[in-house]
């Protein structure tokens, strides 16, 4: 199972000091968080894509490429790649280059984002959001899997004899997660292709998240990719920890109360009761996270949001130290011990490459040999 952190890259005033980071400081803080994630033994760093204030990560490949040069093990991912407003050709080429630079340590999470005005900024209509996600991703898959593509659709100019360059590393495209918190069409899309499904799991009650994941699992099995419990699921989460749980609550409360995304709404106590947000001791975070398996089944990736709402970098790095030393080792051991042997681990470039090589080897075996092997089994 993979554990990591994701960031939305918000530039938010610290309510306890009144200070707001500059954009340069926030960008460099995100890099520091990624480097810390690798240092403390996490598996994944993921960043969002936004094109409006108060967010800074408008160019994920630039940021992730810079981080790739300074890391050796960390999987570099997106917590949103806007499949609706980005050109699929540009996605194919940009992330293939990143994949080469990072020696395969790259995957993507496709999403539609949460900012309506981004559509007209890039020449699209929000009313076509689902249709754009479906058509653009279908083209992206072909660009990564076919050397020469002839294509015509509704939302971009046709392609004739087009080759996306560079080709994916080892002819293995980056693994794709489809992220959605509310759209069953996206869960269906993930299941159709046998891709991963990621539910952010930070604002919604368990009943809603379970409904979305159950739909994805059923449809994954329907399309013949394996049994429902073999579907590739990722979850988000929010935590804030201190050794003493009340200290965590007292320290985090002003950030929660003033956060742009949920401040001035439900109380911290109500929000932590109704959503997966966990504010308390490391043990409380362990217990809450382990409980996700009871509701959603065995899953492959758990990402935590830890650097939002104006929290200072020093505090975020302290949180990562706690996560890496006290929480993730326990979670990793417990989840691994509970996962049945037939449930796959999280895909990596190495595992996808090995699977592709096995498939190519089978293609070279004559039908007679394949038949004999089947008889022997």
TrEMBL record:
UniProt superkingdom: Bacteria
SUPFAM superfamilies: Bacterial luciferase-like
Gene3D superfamilies to which the protein is assigned, alphabetical: Luciferase-like domain
Keyword Oxidoreductase among record annotations: yes
Keywords: Monooxygenase, Oxidoreductase
Domain Luciferase-like: 1-295
PANTHER family: BLR5498 PROTEIN, LUCIFERASE-LIKE MONOOXYGENASE
Full protein name: LLM class flavin-dependent oxidoreductase
UniProt organism field: Kribbella sancticallisti
